[in-house]
Write a structure and sequence with these properties.
Helix content is 2%, strand content 44%. The protein contains 2 helices and 37 strands. It has helices at 8-12, 46-53, and strands at residues 58-59, 95-96, 103-104, 109-116, 121-128, 133-139, 145-149, 183-188, 191-212, 215-235, 244-250, 257-264, 269-271, 277-279, 284-290, 296-300, 304-311, 319-322, 331-336, 343-352, 358-362, 365-369, 375-382, 389-395, 400-406, 412-414, 419-421, 426-433, 436-440, 447-448, 456-459, 475-481, 486-496, 504-508, 514-518, 524-530, 539-543. By secondary structure, the protein is mostly beta strands.
Length: 544
Amino acid sequence: MRGTRRSLTALCRSFSIRQIVRLTVVVGMVSMGGCQGREPAGAGDAGSADARAGDGAVDVSARDGDAADAPLTDDAATDGHGPGLGPDALDETPVTITRPVVVEKGSRLRGLFVQSADGVQERWGLWDSKLGIRCSLQTAEDGAIRCLPFGPSGWALRYDWGYFDSECTQLSIPEAPSCADGFAFVDLPTGRAVHRLGPAVERAHRYQRVNVNGVAKCEVQPLPSPARYHTLGERLDPATFVARTGVVAEGPRSQRIRTVFANMADGTRVLTTIFNSWDEEFQTYCRAMRADDGSFRCLPNVAMAASIHYFSDDLCTRTAAQSSREAPEAYAILTTGDGCAVRSRVFEAGPKLAPGNLYQILNGRCTKVTSSSTYYSVGSELRAEEFVRFRPAQVGAGRLRERWFVEENGVAMREHAYLWDTKLGQRCTFEYTSEGRRCVPPPWTGSFAEQSCSKPAIARPVEICGVTEALVSPMTSLPAGTWCAPRAIPTALGDVVDATMPNRAFQRLTSGGCISVSFLNGPFHTAGEPIDLDRFAVGDDGMD
């Protein structure tokens, strides 16, 4: 094995990859849990965890990079080991695999999913049968990882959110009588406190998080007109919610890439992430990315961003890497290319640079500069061949497909959270609509077409690599309904907002204003006409 294995606790403090099915206040199906600058929950009964995991299981409960802190994926009653790479690892024709096990139910928690007629699934979190609520793994106020209720999504709130208190810890939730059985949340230094919703009161202002000269502040924001928001009701004891007792990386002792399961107090076992695996040699979570040798490899997904603009030497020959973490990442990744030509190179991270040891090429000269960000030197490069190769894979052979990557032992990870609709040539996600569950286009992401930030602006779908189906027509999904029960409206793209400035759109500031922003994924379009729901695949709710 290369070098000294790093403390997983350090990695947890740097864990950052969160694959988002929809932009949520509680990010992802399963939030970052213990990887928020705090130690994860105690290891629990590691012995019983290892006994269940079998030969080669490694207890990673007290380590960093907790995989219980990323979205859940699809499930099936299989051992999670598909056909592997096969004889030609460079062949990128997707191989068909069996969907890995995601949830083994216990006495209280069950896995939720939505399934199409042809068997393709999308995870929908966990179900607490005792409380009758949908939940996800998050850090509770007692510091333990527990299955806490979901918060309202940014999409369902129309990306118009703020806070009720001057510390910016209590999300302001608009009054909605039909949501009275929902929950309110207060984010404390130790974790999230859960409350019942209290009565609504009229407010003339709320609070917003702002960044002033690199310092985060919570500032009051007058509202355009008074509005009613729910207050905090009864505070629920953290022990109300099922706790995680341990995290175990599973696989034979000889196997380098492992899957990671969370063990819950009720006996439930949950695959902690579909997007990453555990690299036993480098002691880090990794994700399939295109390396500089052209192949997909499991590269560290917790890494500094190596800059192409800043350097650590006065000749501007050694790139510098930026990190905002108290405990810096052990690796830095330099990304080059655009779209499907993106390639990644991995370096060992070096020492922190003194404020005066940063350089940039200005007017053709290597010039000393200053930055409010923290930069580190970059050490030796790790060759692409040192990382395990994966290849494209898929679950399903009908209209909808799940896109995966798989390595030679059959360990698989999802490429992204969305499903692939071969008929429409685009990604889709199961949402509630006026006609039940449909696999609709990805949701609108919160950009606006004009200075008042009232009319949505939609960019064309991003380029999808490795597919043969052509996009039929670009579309998005706009929110309707209440924040606790949003309903998607598939919508066509209208006219280009501004042909003279195609990459410009507007976004709400956290301070309440609306500013012009330039993006790389223009041109932006107005929202067009709603699309007939019959065009989208039907899904049915299911439970493990």
